[in-house]
Amino acid sequence: MLLLDFSSLFIQSAFGLKKRGLIYSKDHLRSAFLSRLFAIIKRFSKYGKLHIFADSGKYWRVEIFAGYKKKRAERRQNDDVDWDKLHGLQDAIIDEMRENLPFAIVSIDTMEADDLIALACRFYAPKNKRHLIISSDKDLTQLLRAPNIGQWSVGKRSFLQYDPHAFKAQLLRGDSSDSVPSIYRGDEYLIKSSGRRKLTDARLKEVDISTLESFRAYYKNDSEIERITENYNRNRALIDLRCIPRRFLPLFRQALKTALERAESSALNADRYLEKHNLLKKFQAIKQYKETPIAPPRKQPPKADQNERKQPPQGRNASANPARNASNRRRRNFRRSRPNGQNASEPAPDRDA
User: Fold this and answer.
1) 274-321 per-position pLDDT tens digit
2) Taking Cα atoms as reference points, which of 106, 155, 111 lies closest to residue 8?
3) Is the dihedral of CA 67, 70, 72, 75 positive or negative?
4) What is the mean pLDDT of the chain?
5) Mean pLDDT of 106-120
6) Nearest to 6 by CA among 68, 63, 67, 56
7) Mean pLDDT score, 126-150
8) Which of 197, 228, 254, 321 shows a CA-CA span of 20 to 30 A to 348?
């Protein structure tokens, strides 16, 4: 199963247009995004059916920490990208895809694509098959603990690996990209470090986070152990994808079922929709590619029966025609049986005469 983070690929497509000096028009974005999408499906078709997961724009994690992703929104106000326009075009294109393309597109209010992909890996993806996540989001690498899950970064164009040290550092030091504070900081978190306490690499290795008891054992002599433990539990709820509230599981299953049913009916509109936007040939190439694998296994010649008599090797100019070979053997035997001096046109002597 292919699990695609819609926003990750869409933003990469938009930035690709920006590098080429093109404007963020709906036609440009649609063509750039779908071209990349079809290329990914073609390249990774062995993983099976594509599922697309999209952010809702709202976050349930704000209930736990009000500052979640707050700094990201502030940073975007100061860059040169019109994010409101870009998000509007993103919503319009994903609505078109739901109506016209045979892909299951899943989104749930207050949930992020990371949450949906994590639930799909835990409760939906068969354990006896390989599955691939298409996303540049480092938060998803924690799902790579499972041996049958891989991740391809559309930004780095390479496979990512699970790094337990990096995951521990994210939990304890915080994550500035999502405005998650250090375990030493409270909810009044600022991106700037306080400088009061730091988790060096050496100290980070000493902390055992396998259980809450082992974590508290490390800080047992710290006067602020209760506050540090509370902040640690906050960070784990914000970062660890195993901590997604179970109340979302029935919502996910229903949303996935609806998306799969809708994809079947939308498939009827695909050719007309893509022909209208000059993308039909790329889509047909995907369908043809699915029918013909990249490198079909070569059939090995059947092994000869050990009891079967081996044929002697033929000469360099031996004929491939068995009947002609037999005829040639009869001529050679006839010549050997003639007495010396007998012409080839004369009949063989009568043995009984």
Assistant:
1) 999 999 998 988 865 444 333 334 445 555 444 444 454 455 454 456
2) 155
3) negative
4) 83
5) 96
6) 56
7) 95
8) 321
260 is written with which tokens? 């799969």
DSSP for 268-310 reads: GGHHHHHHHTT-HHHHHHHHHHHHS-SSPPPPPPPPPPTTSPP
The structural domains of the chain, ordered by start, are 2-162+246-291 (3.40.50.1010), 164-244 (1.10.150)
CA distance 9 to 39: 12
> What number of residues does the chain have?
353
Rounded Cα distance between 269 and 129, Å, is 31
What is the DSSP track for 165-225?
HHHHHHHHH-BGGGTBPPTT--TT--SS--SS----HHHHHH---SSHHHHHHHTTT-TTH
* Amino acid in the structure at residue 233: N
What is the structure's pLDDT at 328? 66
Q: What is the dihedral of CA 272, 102, 107, 70, to 10 degrees?
A: -60
Span of 52-56, 184-188, 237-241 with lowest mean pLDDT: 184-188
Distances (CA, A) of 180 to 70, 173, 184, 187, 242: 9, 9, 11, 9, 17
CA pair distance 147, 346, nearest whole angstrom = 83
DSSP 8-state secondary structure symbol assigned to residue 246:
T
CB 235 within 8 A of CB 241: no
Distance CA 197, CA 184 (A): 7
User: What's the confidence (pLDDT) of residue 221?
Assistant: 93
Query: Which amino acid is residue 282, in one-letter code?
Result: K
Q: How many CB atoms are located within 10 Å of the residue 62 CB? A: 14
Nearest to 116 by CA among 238, 236, 248: 248
Consecutive H or E run containing 52: strand 50-53
Q: How many distinct helices (H) and strands (E) make up the chain? A: 13, 6
